[in-house]
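Troubleshooting log. The previous structure file for this entry was overwritten by mistake, so regenerating from the original sequence record. Sequence copied from the archived sheet and checked twice against the printout by T.R.
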Amino acid sequence: MSHILETETIPREVHFLYASSVKGYYKVSHVLGLERLLDISKAHNGKVYLYLFFAGYPSRTLMEAAEPRQRFEPRVMMGSDILDVFRSFESQHTTVCYVAGPPGMTRHFVKVLQQKVGIDAKRVLCEEYENEVAKVHTEI
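Regenerated output below.
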């Protein structure tokens, strides 16, 4: 997302699904990268669609910080959430997806994108975070 802003090469639309597990009272600054995402979303209102999923016990502060938001869910992100996003447009053949997170989650969502949405494997990039070390998988 930062690269898109820095190079001013923002695509027609960016759909960013962000999931995190929170417990107790959290401020926006406590959730990795959230402040930056909210700033980007506000700066490109109408082109950047931000979907926030906070499993655990999100505080009202986190929920209110998502304004203006397209979607906020106080729960775990699921494969059906990705399918919902792709129902809103028909450009799967030009879409590039990036998935990052723990290995099990990453593999699950890559599988959803390829098998259920129909995104070509060459258009799905991912990073698996294991013990704070990222394993990068690029197919393009």
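The chain has a mean pLDDT of 77. Archived copy saved in two places this time.
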